[in-house]
Amino acid sequence: xxxxxxxxxxxxxxxxxxxxxxxxxxxxxxxxxxxxxxxxxxxxxxxxxxxxxxxxxxxxxxxxxxxxxxxxxxxxxxxxxxxxxxxxxxxxxxxxxxxxxxxxxxxxxxxxxxxxxxxxxxxxxxxxxxxxxxxxxxxxxxxxxxxxxxxxxxxxxxxxxxxxxxxxxxxxxxxxxxxxxxxxxxxxxxxxxxxxxxxxxxxxxxxxxxxxxxxxxxxxxx
Length: 222
Known about the structure:
- The chain has a 5-stranded parallel sheet, sandwiched between helices.
- The longest helix has 15 residues, at 15-29.
- It is α/β, with parallel strands linked by helices and 222 residues long.
- 36% of the residues are buried.
- The two termini are 22 Å apart.
- The chain is globular and about 55 Å long.
- It contains 8 helices and 5 strands; from the N terminus they run E-H-E-H-H-H-E-H-H-E-H-E-H.
- Helices cover 35% and strands 16% of the residues.
- The chain has helices at residues 15-29, 39-42, 51-54, 67-75, 94-107, 114-121, 141-153, 179-189; strands at residues 2-7, 33-38, 80-86, 125-132, 158-165.
- InterPro entries: Flavodoxin_fold, Flavoprotein-like_sf, ISF_SsuE-like.
């Protein structure tokens, strides 16, 4: 697999960056190609504007920075994507939200490559890596729900979340829950992690992990 990690921390040696690097290391350990991209660097041209006034005559986004290259040359070609962000005001960092906001220009029908972008974004396995100062379970729920809905909209299987607690640079390594180990494991297992998103009409086997008619302990792989 080709794996892209989008790192949203403004601190290049921050805790969410450490999670991003650990995830990428785990993916490489499983034989995948993995690369981490700094969203703050790639989206230096600013936030989403009024596309009706700033879109070019050819339908291309006129914000001149690295977003276009990141989207068309890296993200669309990847098989999986991970989002790494600190928790800011109980939501994602601005550079990651800007990544999703500016996607609007590229999936709009007026963009010359919108069909290619929509097809390329669909089906990628997605994961979320969060660094936060507090462990309170509700602190990250809003962001996780938001990413879950955005990945569902893009038809991307959302296969895992890792949260690491820390404040000072690199402090996440001292979190006793070992989030760096969890991030590496998530990267390594990204291709095979179980994912379901049931609808009322979804056919369901009688058992999750094997043959519904086999006795417990004799399940075969589905």
